[in-house]
Amino acid sequence: MKLEFKQAHTDQDCSLLFKWINDPITRMNSFHTEMIPYDEHCKWFSTKMNNPGSIIYICVDVDIKLEVGQIRVEFDNDIGEINYCVEPQSRGKGFGTEILKLLPNQLIKDGFVFSKLIGKVKHNNIASEKVFLKAGYQVEISSEWKEFTWLNQH
Ligand SMILES: CC(C)(COP(=O)(O)OP(=O)(O)OC[C@H]1O[C@@H](n2cnc3c(N)ncnc32)[C@H](O)[C@@H]1OP(=O)(O)O)[C@@H](O)C(=O)NCCC(=O)NCCS
């Protein structure tokens, strides 16, 4: 498997992300479970594109030239919070794990400076929990969610 990250910025990227955002499992695992209308999504996308503290990558399997998922990081000072998904047809093939493994170096390569990355996972989202653990993130459990951390030791 060889994955490449490309930064989302075009209208086509906006439409692709919309195709994935209302997937029922993605909505169920999100902290905001409501379905998202297209116009709201487009406004959201434009806000993200204009915020230097937000980055969205579309992850491409270069062997089959297929866009398989997305990962977004929102920076608050030097902490980046992760939000990600793999498109429904591509789940269970190891992409989620690979995306989380590749993320820190991609961010460093793109000039982001951060002390840690975190991901908040709902207690019933076993697939995401497994993926964070397989990718080497450390877990802390709270009553509301499981929080996974990657510490930047570079
Ligand atoms: C979470 C998600 C990104 C995982 O991506 P993926 O490419 O399927 O992940 P991987 O293939 O690398 O690994 C998935 C692991 O979870 C396991 N798994 C998948 N569904 C599961 C389930 N319902 N219960 C238990 N384990 C499950 C798989 O067996 C695999 O573990 P294994 O390697 O030990 O067999 C993907 O399921 C997804 O996009 N879900 C919807 C959005 C979401 O939840 N995003 C994360 C929000 S925190």
Q: Provide the domain count.
A: 1
What is the level-2 CATH architecture name?
3-Layer(aba) Sandwich
What is the 3D form? globular
Order of helices and strands: EHHHEEEHEHEE
Number of strands: 7
Q: Would you state the CATH class?
A: Alpha Beta
Quote the average pLDDT: 97
CATH fold-level name: Aminopeptidase
- Which percent bin holds the helix content? 25-40%
Largest sheet: 7 strands, mixed
Tally of individual helices? 5
- CATH homologous superfamily heading: Gcn5-related N-acetyltransferase (GNAT)
Describe the structure.
The model has no long low-confidence stretch (mean pLDDT 97). This protein has helices at 11-21, 24-29, 38-49, 95-109, 126-134; strands at 3-7, 54-61, 66-76, 79-86, 116-121, 138-141, 146-151. By secondary structure, the protein is α+β, with helices and mostly antiparallel strands. The chain has one domain: 3-Layer(aba) Sandwich (Aminopeptidase). The structure holds coenzyme A. Residues 25-26, 29, 84-86, 91-97, 119, 121, 125-128, 130-131 line the site of coenzyme A.
